[in-house]
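Troubleshooting: if your tokenizer reports a length mismatch, compare against these two reference records.
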Amino acid sequence: MEVASPIPKKHARIEIIPLIDIMFFLLASFMMVSLSQTTMKGMKVALPTGSSGQTQSKKDYVSFSIDKDGKLYFDKNPMGYEEVAPRLRQLYVTNPEAKIFVRGDREAVHGNVTRLLDQIRSTGYKKISFEIKSEASAGIPAPGK
């Protein structure tokens, strides 16, 4: 003889909607993290600060870095000043709209930066920017504050 239990028998259920919500949250989180990551092509130099600097997008760009000892780097690869023009002429054939970013160390000699700028302009590039560290990111209060 079987006695029926007064407690109703429930079958286990897996709720799928909360799992879908969690997966969408994780997907959105990973997408936001991957979009916020940027790659630095230039060498690490002590950039000067400026109050009028604006952030620019760095798509299709080339980075030149000059350290305080006057050594020149092309996208983290050391090179001589005489190699700049031939390398940029090759690049100009494939991408004439590329932006050139010049990262000069705060203690770099002005003559080295001018020499590099002259060689870049001689290859036909007109979109040349100097990278600086903005006062906001450097923790320096803006003038008048």
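Reference record two:
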Amino acid sequence: MNTQLTEKKVFEKISFRENLLAKGTYEDCTFNNCNFNSADLSSITFRTCTFNNCDCTLVTLKDVSMQDVKFLNCKLLGLQFNQCKEFLLRLDFENCMLKLSVFYRLKLKKTRFKNCNLEEVDFSEANLTGAAFENCDLLQATFMHTNLEKADFRSAFNYTFDPEINRIRNARFSIPGVTGLLAKYDIEIEW
């Protein structure tokens, strides 16, 4: 059980590869320019925390609790967000590199992805109701049996998914991005 509580602390330029982050709960904390590359954050709780300019590549997230966590200008390659605890899970991403990350089966209602690289991210069976993909690259992202109702793809690009196996009621798209919904038909569209 997490017993250590750390509140309102700012962590600057720390490499958590060498100095492991202590197990416990971090509330209203900020991590600036920290290196978490390949770190094990298992069983840690983050509440209302912000990660700025951090390298979180291949971080282990087993049983991590992320409640209202913001990632700004972070490198988040290959993260298995599906290993996080789902209870009160709330995330926000801006200017982040999330290539090859996994959000399989997560409830991510109203999650905001702004100016993010989401290439080859797995959103299979996730609930992204009301999510916003503002100016995001979704090249080869996987959407399979995903709830995308009321999601906003108007400024997203490079997405392709099958509207027959995903829920897209009241989702928002723009031209020419909407052509990604027709990719499975192998047709030519001219403007």
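Descriptive notes for reference record two:
- The mean pLDDT is 94.
- The domain at 1-97 is CATH 2.160.20.80 (Pectate Lyase C-like).
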